[in-house]
Amino acid sequence: MMLTYPIFADWIGCIQCGDTKMPDYLSLLSTGARKVRPSELRELMKIIERPDMVSFAGGIPDPGLFPRAAYDECYRDALSVLNAPRSLQYAATEGYLPLREWIAEQMRSKGLTCTPDNILLTSGSQQGLELIGKLLINKGDRVCTSRPTYLGALQAFTAYEPAFDEVTGGSRDSSAKLLYVVPDFANPSGETMSAPERDALVSRAHRENSIIVEDAAYSSLRFEGADLPPIAALDVSLSGSIDTCRTLYCGTFSKTLSPGVRVGWVCGPRDLIGRLTLLKQGADLHSSTINQIATLGVAKACFEEHVTMLRGVYRARRDAMLIALSRYAPEGTAWTRPEGGLFIWLRLPQKVDASALFEEAVKRGLAFVPGAAFFPDEAERNTMRLSYSLNPEPVIDDGIRRICELISAAGDNGYARAS
Amino acid sequence: MMLTYPIFADWIGCIQCGDTKMPDYLSLLSTGARKVRPSELRELMKIIERPDMVSFAGGIPDPGLFPRAAYDECYRDALSVLNAPRSLQYAATEGYLPLREWIAEQMRSKGLTCTPDNILLTSGSQQGLELIGKLLINKGDRVCTSRPTYLGALQAFTAYEPAFDEVTGGSRDSSAKLLYVVPDFANPSGETMSAPERDALVSRAHRENSIIVEDAAYSSLRFEGADLPPIAALDVSLSGSIDTCRTLYCGTFSKTLSPGVRVGWVCGPRDLIGRLTLLKQGADLHSSTINQIATLGVAKACFEEHVTMLRGVYRARRDAMLIALSRYAPEGTAWTRPEGGLFIWLRLPQKVDASALFEEAVKRGLAFVPGAAFFPDEAERNTMRLSYSLNPEPVIDDGIRRICELISAAGDNGYARAS
Predict the structure, then answer these.
(1) pLDDT digits over B201-237, tens only?
(2) Contact B233/B110 with Cβ under 8 angstroms?
(3) A-contacting residues in B 130-189 (Cβ below 8 Å)
(4) What whole-number distance in Å separates Cα of residue B191 and Cα of residue B339?
(5) Least confident of A14-28, A137-151, A335-349, B87-101
(6) Under DSSP, is residue B130 helix (H, G, I), strand (E, B) or coil?
(7) A203, A388, B266, B360: which has the fewest C-beta neighbours closer than 10 Å?
């Protein structure tokens, strides 16, 4: 899983090598790097990975659903005698042109008028967030996010030392440099921004001279209801052209085809895309050539039908989780009803600390993500994220029943909220 | 090629959309991003890519030599029904453990005592440089490099706004935060640091409380002479342990197996590796899972024999270029004699501007890289980088002959140095 790494704190000060003093590494770090800290999720993920665990924690696709055969065929083709010299070689920083053309066509089908020059290929949409942070954030700049928000966005931006604020409500006295949103079936809340909310965000960006970062990681996974226009499309309408707009749209194949190939993109004004391309050149030269070529092959072969299949499977699992929650959740519990994506956000009775509850749950072979990790500031500890993507319906029903039993018992069993 | 991107300057100010004003994007950029500028190489690379060109420009492996069959087999294996669920899924930020074990064994065989916990997998060694810049550089920190030096290192570090200085000579009054070197067959100079120079660098890092960045991109491509110990190994000896040393070793499979898979690594003290892992998590979550798995397969299948083959081929091409230079180069020209790697560095008579010479050369279907791009500060414009990696010996002989004719004529033909 993505959230493990060597433990820094455990190690400091435990090694003494004869007369040699250990360097004071901490004193050498940049001020930005010092602010990047391990998240609470780290230790959790080690537990969650245990094979005996029924986990609603990982926000990851069901690996049994990957379009394996299509990838197999496309990698073989990319590695043919004819194609291998290109697939295994260095490539252009901006990305493989035929893939950017395919993505631009996708973007246009969502109402976002653009050309391949508006597309930068990235190593997952996570790299898009990182490059945008590097492009725009000076120390102290205001970056507005929802509460809760995607942990990875906080990680990407934190090293550039912004001041985080809430995108809705909160102080509007000073303008924000960046407005970061996951408008469709957000991680972790599962919520979708309404059309008026999207319009208002675009207006605000124009008024405050801000850049909107539209994280569209889950947008293709709508189960029901009508698609809403991407914020970028609304901005293009208001601005007259994508090349004069204020939105950077971050897309990815991670939730539709495969996260393991690390292929995502940023779509935006050519001016900013050109600058991001320069930064990407310094960051990793370019994303994997062979993965871009194979991804285009898979996308051309089966994108629509594959995503249609995914929507059906995930919808059934969402339904199973919603039904289980309505059946078993105790009074004082509330949850979101996502129209797509992978997540349901659960608010527990005020007195319950989801991190304490988590410790009880893992003893019983159950996992979820305590909500505290998703807050840029003071955490709401009586929250949790549940993902329905990995388990079949009967397992979801049984797991939610058992988690709800724990919630019901929480007040009596000592894992109540400390404060 | 890696050095192309949309042209920023050409576009600014050319779009007017009715009444809508274009945002002043420049005013929104971070101070670091403003400092990252297109290099001179950009336009050159477009020309160099023309198929009719005899190019000594690209510092890239011969694509005809990639271990295609081994990759084909390893991707098939990674995409088997059994393995695909893992290969296409998210993975740990620090990298695929069996690959880190293989790399740690490689490192130990070079005298660098380490374990997989000392290894972070990166998307090429370029990402290693970027993450190290982010980890350590505060605005104004002194970063010392050779002159000339690897352009990509300058690009990676520049966004963090250091003050660049020369690693040898120059002022030693204040200590350096980072000492960046390519000790073996450097890009672009082809030169190799001697054992005493390596020892002196380690002593200096200890004295000045600096971190050494050892860019070992070409180290496996030695054609002759004995391997010198990695700087990291010397540092480990002095420090008593890798976990108390001051060197971050950046390795890559780009020059040995394939650059298109983007698999490199950083090897260093666990403390710093842990911090770099956190930064990488924010930067792109992890490097491509399938590429790490396939790369391990190829490395296990044929690393040593493949690299032995490469050494033989590149050695013969180096020899052809050295012979051609000694045969055709006019008086006042000097060049390095690399013991490995891909590059020869040519110093022209003082009055010749290699950029002007380049324009004449491309008219005749010949390309090289004018040396100016490789200087962090005032450029020595009478220099060029020649790569012998891409052409067979007869083409090298003929191309060098024609370039030397141009050099000989330079003084008489108006493309002399302007100043």
Answers:
(1) 999 999 999 999 999 999 999 999 999 999 999 999 9
(2) yes
(3) 130, 134-138, 152, 155-156, 158-160, 177
(4) 8
(5) A14-28
(6) helix
(7) A203
**Shortest distance, CA A367 to any CA of chain B (angstroms):** 18
pLDDT for A46: 67
Q: Which tokens belong to A72? A: 């197999």
Interface test with A, best of B79, B97, B129, B142 (most A CBs within 10 A): B79
Q: In whole angstroms, what is the distance from residue B136 CA to residue B129 CA?
A: 11
- Cβ atoms A214, A255 nearer than 8 A: no
Supply the pLDDT for residue B169.
56
Q: How far is CA A298 from the centre of its chain?
A: 22
A222: number of Cβ within 10 Å = 20
Q: Would the CB atoms of A273 and B28 count as touching at under 8 Å?
A: no
Question: What is the enclosing helix (H) or strand (E) of B31?
Answer: helix B31-35
A47 touches B at CB < 8 Å: no
* The pLDDT of residue B59: 86
Give bridge partners of residue B267 from the DSSP assignment: B119, B249
Nearest CA among A201, A145, A151, A183 for reference residue A39:
A151
A 296-355 near B (Cβ less than 8 A): none
Residue B249 to residue B5: CA distance in whole angstroms: 29
Residue B266 Cα, gap to closest chain A Cα (Å): 14
> Are B406 and B415 a contacting pair, CB within 8 Å?
no
Region of residue B118 (phi > 0: left; psi between -120 and 50: alpha; otherwise: beta): alpha
Work out the angle at residue B279's Cα, subtended by the Cα atoms of residues B275 and B285, and round it to the nearest 5 degrees: 125
Closest CB to B75 among A75, A258, A274: A75
Chain A residues in contact with B271 by the CB 8 A cut-off are 8, 11-12, 25
Distance between CA atoms of B120 and B249, rounded to whole angstroms?
10
Token match 């954030």: residue?
Answer: A137
* Closest-approach residue (CA) in chain B for A19: B240
Residues 6+ apart with CB under 8 A from B147: B166, B375, B376, B377, B380
- A2, A32, A239: residue with CB nearest B134: A32
Cα angle B90-B261-A108, degrees, rounded to a multiple of 5: 70
pLDDT at A324 exceeding the cut of 60: yes
Q: Is B251 helix (H, G, I), strand (E, B) or coil?
A: strand
Distance CA B180, CA B304 (A): 28
The DSSP element (H or E) to which A54 belongs, if any, is strand A54-55
Cβ contacts (< 8 Å) between B282 and chain A: which residues? 36, 126, 130, 152, 155-156, 158-159
Of the pLDDT bands very low, low, confident and very high (cuts 50, 70, 90), residue B172 is low
SS (HEC) of B276-338: HHHHHHHHHCCCCHHHHHHHHHHHHHHHHHHHHHHHHHHHHHHHHHHHHHHHHCCCCCEECCC
Q: Output the pLDDT for position B374.
A: 92
Give Cα separations from B182 to B231, B244, B344 (angstroms): 10, 22, 14
B91 and A20: CB-CB below 8 Å? no
Chain A residues touching B86 at Cβ < 8 A: 63, 260
Lowest average pLDDT, out of A212-216, B274-278, B359-363, goes to B359-363
Option in A2, A88, A160 nearest B63 (CB): A88
Å between A368 CA and nearest CA of chain B: 18
- Beta-bridge mates of residue A366: A54
**Beta strands B142-145; B163-166: pairing state:** parallel
A14, A22, A90: best to mutate for the B interface, most B CBs within 10 A: A90
**pLDDT of residue B48 exceeding 80:** no
Helix (H) or strand (E) holding B263: none
Tokens of B300: 């296990």
ipTM comes to: 0.92
